[in-house]
Amino acid sequence: MIFLKSIQKNKKHSLYFSLLLCTLLCTALFFLLSCLTGCKTATNTASDAGTLYASDPGPDDSENVSAYNTDIDTSRLIVGTDPTYKPFEFMKDGKINGFDIDIVNEIAERMGKEIEIITLKWDGTYSIPEDLSLDMVISAIPISPDKENIIDFSDPYFTMEYMLVTLVDTEIKIKENIKGKSVGILDIEKGNLAEDYMLDYRIEGYSDITTMENDLKNKNIDGILISLPIGVNLITGNTGIYKVLEVVKSNRDFAIVFREGSPLREEVNDILEEIKGDGTYNEIYDKWFNYNL
After folding, report:
1. For residue 144, pLDDT beyond 70
2. CATH 1.25.40.850 is held by the domain 160-252
3. Which regions of the chain carry the CATH code 3.40.190.10?
């Protein structure tokens, strides 16, 4: 009888010990899981912080734009460009050259910053790539009012000009001689010049520049209106064949592009005004658009 009571007592002690052990194990497991969850949360937070750039706000987070405005690299100016439009920006000997590049280098120098230029593909969407931490983009970008709700434009730094060109071997000596005569222009560029100006000539539209140049050479038309970059290449590459009667400004202005709300816009505008006022702009312009009239 005493033996049975001893066994029952031992069973009670064993059951109590098992329950105590189970409670301790559950408590330890809960504590371990809590620690692991906390570490994971901290790791994710740190990882997210490393991938969010103040200069690259998310498309649906307006608060990030404010962060971009206040977190500007004071030592570097990071600029994007699409180097496919000579003489504005193009590759030569593995380096990016051009009018735009000289302009932005001057801007960086006056800011007291080093410059880093990143190549990109620029298209009509006017979207600054979200995966690039860029301060600005310069790439012969025409100002488009309907894009001002997604990006900011600087003041115009270049207005596209057009050359009125004819042959050297012709009776046309001055621009007044060509009024009322046939003048070729690319169809896509007709809207870039004032309508009143175009009324002075019998305009012939062309879909490609080569056909238009050939018609001028063959005297099927009396002159052509071509954009300054193309005209400079045409004149300098064909000495003694063509002559420029006039250079006329268009309504097509180019500007530097910023992410919406960038505080750099005002500073860049001030510098553009400075370089235009002190003669630096003209020096850069003549370097890339000089031709002998």
Report:
1. yes
2. no
3. 63-158+253-289, 160-252
The pTM for the full model equals: 0.72
CATH code for the domain defined by 63-158+253-289: 3.40.190.10
User: CB neighbours of 252 closer than 8 A, spacing ≥ 6?
Assistant: 142, 159, 160, 192
- The residue that leads in pLDDT, 24 or 126, is 126
pLDDT per residue as tens digits for the range 162-181: 999 999 999 999 999 999 99
